[in-house]
Every structure is written in C-alpha cells, then in structure tokens.
Amino acid sequence: YVPQGGAVFDELTVGENLKLVPVPRKDARRRITQAMSEFPILGERWNQRAGTLSGGEAQMLSLARAQLLAPKLVLLDEPTANLAAGVIDSLQKVLRRWRDAGQSLLVIEHNLDFVLELCDRLYVIQRGETVFNGSAQDLLADGKRRLRNFFGLSDVDGATRSACLDT
Known about the structure:
Structural class: alpha+beta
C-alpha cells in the first residue's frame, strides 16, 4: 500500500527508510539496487533526511519501499497528488514498466489522463456508486457524452480530459 503523499519516516535518511523494509537479507542488496535504478534521485539523496525531500521525491521513496517487498499487488492512493507534471510523467513511466512486467496495480486517482494511459480497467465512482466500469477505450468511445455526464466537463477535447474520478 502506497498512501497519498508518500508515507516515509521523516527523521530517518532515505537509506534508513529503505533498510527498514523487511526484505530477506540475501535479496536486500539486489532489491535496493533495483529501486535505485528505478529512482536514481534516491541514490543521490541516500544520506538525506526523508523529511527534507520534495513531495515527488517522498512519493518515489514510498514507491521504492513498497516495491522492495516484491508484492503481487500494489495499491496506490492518489499517487499524483500535489506533484509537478514532470514528476507525474516519470512516475507513470515507472508504473507502466511495473505493469508491463506483470505487477498488478490498483490505482485510486483523480488525474484522468494518468489513469487512462496506465490502467487496463477503470471504475468511475460518483457519490459512492459505481457509474462506469470498463476499459479506457470504452470510456473514450462515447467520450464526450460520458465525460460530460461523469465529470461535468463542458469542453472535452483531448487536451481537457483531466477530472475527478470520484466526484
């Protein structure tokens, strides 16, 4: 589980945060090396207190901690919340690689563009009720009508698809 905002131990360094993950000793070095290749900035910040990281860096650390466990499923709660566009793009590339490598992801997200490009199946929830479930292609097939109905968008050209998924 990767909570919104990146759950890290602020008083510990990046390295200490990663070393706290209960990984079998024989796999620890390999998994941490892999995490550093996914998120090179964490290697640069290894001795830096996690509480001084930017929001994007903290999110990367939180993702790296989750991935060290080699889970079958990663639950991501609002992974793009309060992140800069460049960080979101980098995050999406990493998650796409995980997905393509067979990692299952369950993403709760307001950024429609992000989930349309990442997720195979979408569920739109309005006021606690599922109002759509299907593929991104299904959602976009009748896009203008559905996006207007689900998200209250008046201009639904390709450039204006960002909206709440749980309005």
